[in-house]
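User: Just a sanity check before I run the rest of the batch. Below are the C-alpha cells for the first item. I only need the designed sequence back.
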C-alpha cells in the first residue's frame, strides 16, 4: 500500500509540473518562425488611429486573436494596455507594438501593429508611432461618427504621406448609422464610401477583411537590407534588470547579438546584449533585419543615453542620421516635490525612469521655500499630468506633492540700464512665483490654441456661450451633415487646460469632442494673484490670470481654500491680493478649547486670567505657526 501511495504521489507531482510548464507554440507548421526569412515585400507596418473610445484596443485584440498571437479563450481584454493606469481609467496612454504572422494566399506575412492613444494629451505618442509605419487604420465609431481627434489624427497621417484605410467600427450597435458616417468621411476627408470597411471589433465581424486590406492596400517598407545598418529609436522604457530598452524601426541593414552599435546623438558605443520582437510578449531572436520593428537591449542606463528619435548604427560605419522627431512643446507646467526631503533621491530616480518611457515630459530643477528641492515638469495637458503622477505612485511607490498647473507666459520688461546692457528684455514664465512685479512689466503675452469642436447642432448655443465665456474668438463653423457642426475657435491655453474639456462634455451630454493645436503667443492683460495665509504669501498657490477674471477667481479661490485647508489651533486669514490690493478674504476659524471647563466656582478673575492666557498663547502660535496644507490642495485648487 505504501509503495502504491508513493507511485500515485509521484504521478501527481509529474502532472502538476507538466501543467505548469510553458511550452512554446510553433505556429503554421512544425518549425519555429524565422522572421528574417520573410521577404521585405511581405512586411507591413501600420498603426491604428482613432478618437477616444472608438475601439482601437478592441480591434487590436481581435487582430492578435485572428493571427494566433494570443488565444481567443485567454479571457483578457485590451491586451496591449499593460499599464495599471490604463486598466483603471479604460484609456490607452502608451503606444504599444505587436508583430503578427498572417497567412495570405499561402504566403506568410509579417504585420507590425502599433496601437496608439486617442486622447489629445498623448498625440506625441501617435506622431512618434507613425514614423515607423507606411499606413494607418483610421477607425471611426459608426454610432458617434467623426470626432475632433479623428480629424487631427487624419491630418497627422496625411501630413506624413501615409496610406489610410478607413474602417467603421461598432456596426452591430442598435443606433449605428454607417451611411451617415460614410457621408461625413466623404465631406471632411474626400474618402470614397466604397473604400470604407465596416466591422464590429467586439463581435469579430469583418476582421479578416481588415487584414486582407492591410496586405493589399499598404506598401511594404522602403528599406534596404543590403545597406549599412540604421535604426530609428521611437520608444523606450526602463527594465530594472536590463537597463533602458529601445524600440526601433530598422530602416537599413541588419543587427545581431554581439554587434557593436553607436548612437548618432550621444556618440556612445554599446554592445548589443539582446534582441527581441513583441508578439505581444517578448520573443528573443538572434538577428533583426531591415523593415522590422524590434526591441534592443544594450546596457543603456539612463534617459540621457536612450534618446527618442536617435539613430543607431554600427560603430565602424558612418551613416547619415535618420530624420528624428520635432520635440513636443509642453503646454502645462507643474512643480513636483517629495513629501519629505529624505525621499528626494528616490523620487529623482523614479522621475528619470518614467521620463525614459514618456519623452514628452520636460524636467527642470526647481526649489520652493515651503516644499524644498524639487522639479518643474512640463506636460502636454492636465490628463497627461494626472497620468504621470499616478504612474509615479503605482509603478515606483513615490509619494509626490504636485503644485497647481500653469502655462508659459511671455513677459516684456520695461527698459532699464541692466536690460540695455544684457539686451534681454523678454522673459518666459511658467512658474507664478517668478512672475515680475507689475511695475517692471511693459506688456504680457499668453499662449493661444486653435480649438476644433464637433458637436450635434442641438447643443450649439450652450457651446458657443462656453467659448465666449472662456474668451474664445470664433473662426469658422462648418456643417458636417444635417445633425453635426464643426466649430473652430481661437482660445487662450490657460482657459483650455484645466476644465474646458470636462465642462464641454457636461453641457453636451458627452456628445461633443474637442481637439486643439498650438498657435503661438498673443498680447493680453495679465496679472499675478497672490494668496496670503495670515499675511504670509504662499508662492505655490499664486496664480497668473487675465485681469477681467480677478474678482471672480479671487473669490472662488479663497472659498475653495477655506474648504480644503484643515482647521488649525489658530485662526487663519485667507486673502487674495493683486498688486498689493486685497480683493477677497475668508477666515478659517480655529479649534476652540474651553479652558474654563474645569472651573466650578470662585471669583470671576480666575476665569478672566485663564482666557487671557489662552489668548496670549494663540497670539504666539499665530506668529510662529507652520500651517500645513494637504497635497490635494495643489492639484485641485484651480479646478472651478
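Assistant: Here's the designed sequence for the first item:
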Amino acid at each position: 500500500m505504501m509503495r502504491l501511495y508513493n507511485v500515485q504521489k509521484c504521478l501527481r507531482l509529474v502532472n502538476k509540473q507538466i501543467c505548469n510548464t510553458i511550452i512554446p507554440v510553433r505556429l503554421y507548421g512544425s518549425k519555429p518562425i524565422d522572421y528574417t526569412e520573410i521577404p521585405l515585400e511581405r512586411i507591413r507596418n501600420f498603426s491604428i488611429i482613432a478618437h477616444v473610445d472608438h475601439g482601437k484596443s478592441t480591434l487590436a485584440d481581435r487582430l492578435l486573436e485572428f493571427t494566433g498571437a494570443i488565444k481567443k479563450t485567454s479571457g483578457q481584454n485590451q491586451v496591449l494596455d499593460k499599464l495599471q493606469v490604463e486598466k483603471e481609467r479604460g484609456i490607452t496612454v502608451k503606444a504599444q507594438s505587436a508583430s503578427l504572422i498572417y497567412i495570405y494566399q499561402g504566403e506568410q506575412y509579417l504585420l507590425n501593429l502599433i496601437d496608439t492613444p486617442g486622447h489629445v494629451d498623448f498625440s506625441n505618442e501617435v506622431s512618434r508611432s507613425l514614423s515607423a509605419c507606411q499606413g494607418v487604420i483610421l477607425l471611426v465609431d459608426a454610432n458617434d461618427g467623426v470626432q475632433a481627434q479623428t480629424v487631427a489624427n487624419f491630418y497627422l497621417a496625411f501630413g506624413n504621406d501615409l496610406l489610410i484605410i478607413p474602417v467603421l467600427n461598432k456596426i452591430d450597435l442598435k443606433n449605428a448609422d454607417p451611411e451617415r458616417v460614410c457621408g461625413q468621411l466623404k465631406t471632411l476627408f474626400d474618402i470614397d464610401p466604397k473604400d470604407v470597411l465596416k466591422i464590429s471589433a467586439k463581435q469579430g465581424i469583418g476582421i479578416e477583411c481588415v487584414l486582407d486590406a492591410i496586405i493589399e492596400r499598404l506598401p511594404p517598407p522602403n528599406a534596404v537590407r543590403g545597406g549599412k545598418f540604421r535604426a530609428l529609436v521611437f520608444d523606450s522604457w526602463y527594465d530594472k534588470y536590463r537597463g533602458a530598452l529601445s524600440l526601433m524601426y530598422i530602416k537599413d541593414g541588419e543587427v545581431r547579438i554581439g554587434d557593436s552599435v553607436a548612437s548618432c546623438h550621444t556618440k556612445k558605443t554599446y554592445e548589443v546584449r539582446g534582441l527581441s520582437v513583441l508578439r505581444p510578449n517578448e520573443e528573443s531572436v538572434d538577428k533583426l533585419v531591415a523593415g522590422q520593428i524590434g526591441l534592443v537591449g544594450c546596457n543603456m542606463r539612463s534617459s540621457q543615453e536612450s534618446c527618442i528619435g536617435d539613430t543607431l548604427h554600427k560603430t565602424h560605419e558612418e551613416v547619415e542620421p535618420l530624420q528624428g522627431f520635432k520635440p513636443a512643446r509642453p503646454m502645462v507646467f507643474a512643480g513636483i516635490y517629495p513629501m519629505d526631503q529624505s525621499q528626494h533621491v528616490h523620487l529623482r530616480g523614479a522621475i528619470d525612469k518614467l521620463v525614459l518611457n514618456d519623452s514628452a515630459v520636460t524636467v527642470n530643477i526647481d526649489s520652493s521655500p515651503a516644499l524644498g528641492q524639487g522639479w518643474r515638469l512640463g506636460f502636454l495637458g492636465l490628463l497627461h499630468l494626472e497620468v504621470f503622477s499616478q504612474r509615479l505612485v503605482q509603478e515606483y511607490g513615490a509619494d509626490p506633492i504636485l503644485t497647481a498647473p500653469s502655462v508659459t507666459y511671455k513677459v516684456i520688461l520695461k527698459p532699464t540700464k541692466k536690460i540695455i546692457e544684457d539686451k534681454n528684455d523678454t522673459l518666459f514664465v511658467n512658474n507664478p512665483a517668478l512672475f515680475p512685479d507689475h511695475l517692471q512689466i511693459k506688456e504680457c503675452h499668453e499662449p493661444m490654441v486653435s480649438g476644433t469642436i464637433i458637436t450635434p447642432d442641438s447643443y450649439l448655443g450652450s457651446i458657443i456661450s462656453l467659448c465666449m465665456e472662456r474668451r474664445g474668438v470664433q473662426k469658422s463653423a462648418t456643417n458636417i451633415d444635417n445633425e453635426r457642426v464643426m466649430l473652430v475657435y481661437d482660445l487662450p491655453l490657460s482657459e483650455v487646460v484645466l476644465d474646458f474639456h470636462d465642462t464641454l462634455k457636461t453641457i453636451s451630454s458627452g456628445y461633443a469632442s474637442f481637439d486643439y493645436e498650438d498657435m503661438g503667443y498673443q498680447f493680453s492683460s495679465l496679472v499675478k494673484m497672490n494668496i496670503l495665509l495670515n499675511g504670509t504669501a504662499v508662492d505655490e498657490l499664486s496664480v497668473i490670470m487675465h485681469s477681467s477674471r480677478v474678482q471672480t477667481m479671487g473669490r472662488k479661490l479663497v472659498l475653495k481654500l477655506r474648504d480644503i485647508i484643515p482647521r488649525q489651533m489658530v485662526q487663519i486669514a485667507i486673502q487674495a491680493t493683486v498688486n498689493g490690493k486685497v480683493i477677497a478674504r475668508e477666515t478659517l476659524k480655529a479649534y476652540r478649547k474651553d479652558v474654563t471647563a474645569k472651573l466650578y466656582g470662585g471669583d470671576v478673575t480666575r476665569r478672566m486670567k485663564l482666557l487671557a492666557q489662552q489668548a496670549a498663547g494663540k497670539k504666539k502660535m499665530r506668529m510662529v505657526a507652520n500651517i500645513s496644507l494637504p497635497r490635494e490642495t495643489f492639484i485641485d485648487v484651480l479646478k472651478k
